[in-house]
Amino acid sequence: MLVTAVRGGLAFLTRLPVRTDEESWEAFRRTPAAFPLVGYVAGALAALALSVPFPAPTAVALYLAALYLLTGVTHADGLADLGDAAAVHGDAARRRDVLKDSSTGVGGALSLGVVLLVLALGAFSLTVSRGWHPPAVFAVALAAEVGAKAGMAYLVCTGRPAHEGMGSALAGDADASDFGSVAITLVPLVLVAAVVGGAGVVAAALAPVGVAHLVGRWAEEHLGGVSGDAFGAANELGRAVGLHAGVIAWTLF
């Protein structure tokens, strides 16, 4: 069941050439723990690009390219849509209408641009903090990606769908008690932290879950519940914040 769910998650959350079918999709959407497990795969591949012995700006460019080649732009599009909805004055129904608009407004463009800049600066800071230390760079970048996917799983377990669609498909069955299985998938990161990265790895993994909680609260208040765009925004925001939290914790502790 878990292997099938991870296969479905790889097909849904990445652009990796993974065979998928209705069974794997159903297993994935009913298994929140599959989210961070997919994060280990995508995070490891992207973190490798950031750990190469190139000048920091080049390594960051490779990391960003690898990240979006691996994961596609679906989540970034969700962030842009949520940015447009946040910029609109009106009730939840009006904001949900904006989410369905395929054009990107100023709010979406600004949100996406700022988050990409924050992500790039976080990756740059990671490569230059405390000297170049590839194992720690890899571990913190990996933890941020796993944490971002754990944040999405948190919304699956705690969110109330705003309407029929991707949000209801993912958040319709699980409840808060299912997040325990998600937490278990983060245990390997604790073991990694004991060897390299220390507090930075832990902070990078946990901060995105806090971000997802805030995104979920905002969506509940302003959209009437979580949507597929909220999942994408939680992923993009969580990864960026996770990198900075990891750098800060690694530098201070």
Automatic annotation (TrEMBL):
Any one GO MF annotation of this record: cobalamin 5'-phosphate synthase activity
InterPro entries assigned to the protein according to its UniProt record, in alphabetical order: CobS
Membrane topology: Multi-pass membrane protein
Cross-referenced Pfam families: CobS
Enzyme Commission code(s) on record: 2.7.8.26
GO biological process: cobalamin biosynthetic process
Catalytic activity: alpha-ribazole + adenosylcob(III)inamide-GDP = adenosylcob(III)alamin + GMP + H(+); alpha-ribazole 5'-phosphate + adenosylcob(III)inamide-GDP = adenosylcob(III)alamin 5'-phosphate + GMP + H(+)
Cofactor(s) listed: Mg(2+)
Enzyme's top EC category: transferase
Localization in the cell: Cell membrane
Keywords annotated in UniProt: Cell membrane, Cobalamin biosynthesis, Magnesium, Membrane, Transferase, Transmembrane, Transmembrane helix
Keyword Transmembrane: yes
Main localization, broad class: membrane
Top-level division of the source organism's lineage: Archaea
One Gene Ontology CC term in the entry: plasma membrane
Pathway: Cofactor biosynthesis; adenosylcobalamin biosynthesis; adenosylcobalamin from cob(II)yrinate a,c-diamide: step 7/7
Residues that span the membrane, as ranges: 104-126, 182-207
Functional summary from the UniProt entry: Joins adenosylcobinamide-GDP and alpha-ribazole to generate adenosylcobalamin (Ado-cobalamin). Also synthesizes adenosylcobalamin 5'-phosphate from adenosylcobinamide-GDP and alpha-ribazole 5'-phosphate.
Protein family according to the UniProt entry: Belongs to the CobS family.
Protein name per UniProt: Adenosylcobinamide-GDP ribazoletransferase
Organism, as annotated: Halopelagius inordinatus
Native organism taxonomy: Archaea, Methanobacteriati, Methanobacteriota, Stenosarchaea group, Halobacteria
